[in-house]
Write a structure and sequence with these properties.
Blueprint (H helix, E strand, L loop, with lengths): L1 H30 L4 H15 L3 E5 L8 E5 L5 H7 L5 E5 L8 H7 L3 E3 L4 H16 L3 E5 L19 H8 L5 E14 L2 E2 L16 H11 L2 E7 L3 E4 L4 H21 L6
Parallel strand pairs: 1-8, 2-5, 2-6, 3-4, 3-5
Antiparallel strand pairs: 6-7, 6-8, 6-9
Helix pairs in contact: 1-2, 1-7, 2-3, 5-6
């Protein structure tokens, strides 16, 4: 019964809020009357509140530009969590563009969609990401190329760091800063999530969105930690594979630290 009440209240908040915020965001994108990220932050914070999430932050988004943020990926909620806190743009799988609600939101925040299986288009996509970074956008790259179950970090794909190399080779920047970021779901209703229950927050593979969304809304009370590491400079002589391994190692260390000693719920 309580779960059904939570779902009804969360859906009511999202529907009512979106009916106001989506037109405002479209107006902002067309006219430039106010920064686009203002409405997006409000929208993301509304979703986070509807889901009953509590966010704990360690570190901060780097002020250095151009900036590529290399993060692990657990669920679509990662985007809501980050978007509620900082001004960033996202790099996402091409198929997300057609998803209900998520696809619409992605377009409204100018997400770059990449087709990882089509090598012909990868150059153009990397060029667009490089251009966006050169213009000052902090771009978030989910470097695993997939979602994990929240218990471990999957190997980072070095090919996804091609945009950093292209930004330099095209003369858009002399160097690109790459910052590691760990997203960790740690508690449910104040109780630490163990290995068995941590996948409650995860959205993996071909799992349908709506059943997963209903579970999150019915449960509520999730704690998520966001850990920002120190950025490293990527320049003309930098090795893409070594950089990917370094980012993966740092994100894994931050995740392990959060799981071993999760912040208390507040």
């Amino acid at each position: 019964m309580i779960g059904k009440i939570r779902i009804s209240m969360a859906l009511g908040l999202v529907v009512a809020g979106s009916s106001i915020l989506v037109p405002l965001q479209i107006l902002s994108m067309k006219t430039g009357w106010w920064p686009e990220t203002i409405i997006l932050k409000i929208w993301h914070r509304m979703i986070v509140r509807a889901l009953g999430m509590r966010i704990h932050v360690r570190g901060a988004l780097s002020d250095s530009r151009p900036l590529l943020v290399a993060s692990n990926h657990i669920s679509w909620t990662d985007i809501m969590v980050l978007g509620s806190m900082v001004d960033v743009k996202f790099i996402a799988r091409a198929d997300m563009e057609g998803w209900p609600l998520i696809g619409m939101l992605s377009k409204l925040q100018r997400t770059v969609f990449i087709e990882r299986e089509r090598k012909r288009s990868s150059g153009d996509q990397a060029s667009e990401i490089a251009s966006r970074m050169a213009k000052g956008d902090a771009m978030v790259l989910f470097a695993e190329g997939s979602t994990g179950d929240g218990n471990m970090v999957l190997p980072f794909k070095s090919t996804l760091f091609g945009a950093a190399s292209m930004a330099i080779s095209e003369g858009a920047a002399e160097q690109v800063f790459i910052q590691p970021l760990a997203i960790v779901y740690t508690r449910l209703h104040g109780v630490p999530l163990g290995r068995r229950h941590r996948p409650i927050a995860a959205w993996i593979g071909d799992e349908d969105l709506m059943p997963h969304l209903k579970v999150l809304m019915a449960q509520g009370g999730l704690d998520v930690e966001v850990h920002f590491g120190d950025p490293v400079a990527f320049s003309k002589g930098s090795n893409r594979k070594e950089t990917a391994r370094l980012m993966e190692s740092q994100v894994r260390d931050m995740m392990r630290a959060a799981l071993a000693d999760p912040r208390p719920s507040q």
